[in-house]
Amino acid sequence: MAEENQAAQGQPEGQAQDQQFSIQKLYLKDVSFESPNTPAVFADGEWQPEVNIQLNSTNQSIGQDTFEVDLKLTVTAKQNKKTAFLVELTQSGIFTIAGFDAENLRGMLGAFCPETLFPFAREAIAELVSKGGFPPLLLAPVNFNALYMQQAQQQQTATASQDTAH
Fold first, then answer.
1. Contact between 140 and 125 (Cβ < 8 Å)
2. Residues 103/156, Cβ–Cβ less than 8 Å
3. pLDDT tens-digit readout, 28-68
4. Rounded CA gap, 130 and 59, in Å?
5. What is the 3 state secondary structure string of 72-108?
6. How many CB atoms within 10 Å of residue 115?
7. Which one of 54, 55, 68, 153 has the largest count of C-beta atoms within 10 Å of its C-beta?
């Protein structure tokens, strides 16, 4: 039965047993909420903020086949060019990832794990913003695979231009 499921999923026999992915722990590593212009910002007319979102992910090996992945988000909302609020958050996770070749492992750490962490970060940000007295901020989904591919392509281009410069 398991062999039939693997074949149906297009995986060679035995491959699924060799590969392992599991979430060991998800946690909020660091969080900060600032609202430097309250209460004046609440009286600043209709709420139409200019929202800027920056995100970055990093990872490190913390043991054999075990990795910590950090997803860092900075959300700045400005109302009439004044900072209404600033949220800085690091959502982290510990993942066990085994049996993948180096390229696929980089993809798991650079795209799949941050994608797993994002909904937890989005929920924490929405809650912080609401508790700060502002309308809920619901961040749109992010295509981490596309971001990872873009970053890998930029690194490849940078490496190629360094090689031609030498």
1. no
2. no
3. 999 999 999 999 999 888 899 999 999 999 999 999 999 99
4. 30
5. EEEEEEEECCEEEEEEEEEEEEEEEEECCCHHHHHHH
6. 18
7. 68
Per residue in 77-128, pLDDT tens?
999 999 999 999 999 999 999 999 999 999 999 999 999 999 999 999 999 9
Domain 23-136: assigned CATH number: 3.10.420.10
Tokens of 149: 């591919």
Q: How is the chain split into domains, by residue range?
A: 23-136
- For residue 21 the two structure tokens come to 């992915």
Both tokens assigned to 81: 């060019």
Tokens of 151: 């970053």
Give residue 93's pLDDT.
98
134 CB-side CA count, 13 A = 31
E strand residue ranges, the chain: 20-34, 50-63, 66-79, 82-98
According to DSSP, the residues that pair with 60 across neighbouring strands are 68
User: Tokens in use for 146?
Assistant: 């596309």
